[in-house]
Hints:
Elements: H1 2-6, E1 27-33, E2 36-43, E3 51-55, H2 69-74, E4 78-82, H3 102-116, E5 121-125, H4 127-137, E6 144-148, H5 154-165, H6 169-183, H7 191-201, E7 206-212, H8 220-229, E8 234-238, H9 250-269, H10 271-278
Parallel strand pairs: 3-4, 3-5, 5-6, 6-7, 7-8
Antiparallel strand pairs: 1-2, 2-4
Amino acid sequence: MLDSIWFRLPEVAEKAKRLRVELPQATELELPFEDGLISGRCWGGDAAGPTVYLVHGWGGWGLQLAAFVPPLLDAGFRVIAFDAPSHGDSAPGREGPKRSSLPELADAFQAVVAAYGPAYGVIAHSLGAAAVMLALRDGLSARKIVFLATATDFRDGLAQYRQHLGFGPRVQKGFLRLFTRKFGPMEGYAAVPMIDALAEERELPALLAVHDRSDRETSAEGSANVVAVWPGARLHLTDGLGHNRILRDPMVVGTAITHLSTERAAAEQSPAVQETMRG
Length: 279
C-alpha cells in the first residue's frame, strides 16, 4: 500500500550520522511528547543569548545541522537541536516506529519551543522547513528564519512516487482519500498559498532561503516561489551541493549566521538601544 511507503522513514546508515565538526559539551534534553520522549541537545545554557532552533527534515536528526552550532555560539546565541519523533534518538511518535508525518514534525517543534523558550531564530532543512511553516500558521513567532532545501508541496512528492513506483490513478485516488481523512486535503499543505495567506494576516519573520540548483529531492523553484510571496525574503542559490551537502558548506553556514546576526548586532551597537537598556 502507498500509505505504508509514504509515512515510512528511510533507513540511515550509521556512517552518515558521523559528526563532521567538533562540538562543545551540550546539555542533554528529554521532553515528554504524547506517549514518548523527544531527545535533544542545548548549547549555551539558560543564561546565554537568544535561542536558535535547528530543525531537521524527513529521516534526519538534530546533529545533521551540527555545522551551524559553533558559529552560532560564537555569535552569542543559545542553540537547541532535537530529534523529531521516530527520528534519531527520540522515541516513536503517533504514527508508530519508523514512521512519522509532517504534522507530527510541526507539533514536535512547537512542543520543544514551548518547553525551552521563544525562538529568536530557526534554521530548518527540507521537510523541517515545511514543519516550521505549519508552526507559523499555527501561531509560532520568530525574528529570523533560514530555510535550507525547502520542501514546498506534497503533490510534487506524490508525482515522484508515481513515476518511480508506476502506480495508476486508482491507487493515487485511494491514497489521497486516506490522506484527506487523516490530515485534510493535500493541497492545504502547499507552502505558497499558505504563506501568501499568512502574509495578509501578520508580519512574517525575516527569511533567507538557500537552495541548490542541482537538488534532486526538492526543487529550487519551490524555494523561489516561497520567496516571491514572503515579504522581504531573500533567495540564495548554490551549485553542486545537492540536498544534504548544503548543510555543511562553509559559505552556506556563514551566510545563514550573517542573516541571523545582522539586525541583532546593529541593535546592540545602537546608542539609542543601549540607552533604553540602561534605563
